[in-house]
Amino acid sequence: MLTFPNCKINLGLNIVRKRSDGYHDLETIFYPLAIKDALEVVKSTTDHRPPTAVNKDVQLTTTGLTINSEEQDNLCIKAYHLLKKDFPQLPSVRMHLHKAIPMGAGLGGGSSDGAFTLQLLNRKFNLGISKEQLATYALQLGSDCPFFLHNKPCFATGRGETLEDIALDLSHYSFLLVNPGIHINTSWAFSNIIPRDTKVSRLKEAIQEPISGWKNDLVNDFEKPVFDLYPEIKTIRDTLYDNGALYASMSGSGSTVFGIFPYLAQNLAALQLQLPYNTFLIKTSTS
Predict the structure, then answer these.
(1) How does DSSP classify residue 73?
(2) 242 is annotated as an active-site residue
């Protein structure tokens, strides 16, 4: 069975407060975009793994972008073991993941892979897990993983797991995403944030205003510490504005920067060629 985990961007990201459990409360708008990995899961018919393999029940192979992490840290592997613990009848599987979404880039690619693995295993092996229970499993994988089960424009609070649908359709705009290949450590990014400690958010109201006003109202709190350490990332955002972006921002804790342009913008292909980075041009926001 094959599925295609997609990425997300953040439209505004406010870090509200640090919690007693070590996590942070935040406010953001999650918006899905059609940059996708590919994930295939098949039932194992023979044991292809050596006896000393770390994960004897699941084999993961990858293509595409290089994944610089230990296999046991991969969220697809973790998703399998979460379900295997509660559903011992889950058979051994082979997974293949083709990575196209940049990692450590603020796009949620790993979280999406983990969430889509939960969904795929549930469907393929008829585990009968409810949407609510899948969300509980997803939150154990990561704070933004539950979003990818929902996968609609949402106002997110708490750690990012409390989701409220919002009416937001940006399919009549173009998106240019620029990834400079800089890996931002999420723990470092949070440690350099001074929480706002605000009780009132304007994100839901601001998102309904014309995009031309978002520049002042939709702020990503991670931008200041990241821009201070990596001025190159700020330059990318400024370049997108200089070339006609209606709104431009860093996504998540970075380092990917996106610009939203009029759908018929004529300069985007040329701009892509000028930028010495990995870029993605999306004409619509859906699959």
Answers:
(1) G
(2) no
- CA 30 to centroid of chain Cα atoms: 9
Is-catalytic flag, 144? yes
Predicted TM-score (pTM) of this structure = 0.91
- Which one of the listed residues 25, 37, 113, 144 is annotated catalytic? 144
Query: What number of other Cβ atoms are within 10 A of residue 150's Cβ?
Result: 17
Catalytic residue among 8, 36, 78, 99: 8
Q: What mean pLDDT comes out for the span 92-114?
A: 95
Per-residue model confidence as pLDDT tens digits over 173-192 = 999 999 999 988 888 988 89
Q: Where are the domains of the chain?
A: 2-165, 173-282
For the domain made up of 2-165, the CATH class stated in words is alpha beta
Task: Find all residues with CB under 8 Å of 265, minimum gap 6, and list them.
Answer: 174, 244
Complete edge-to-edge strand list for the sheet that includes strand 38-43: 2-3, 38-43, 93-99, 58-64
In CATH terms, the fold of domain 173-282 is Alpha-Beta Plaits (3.30.70)
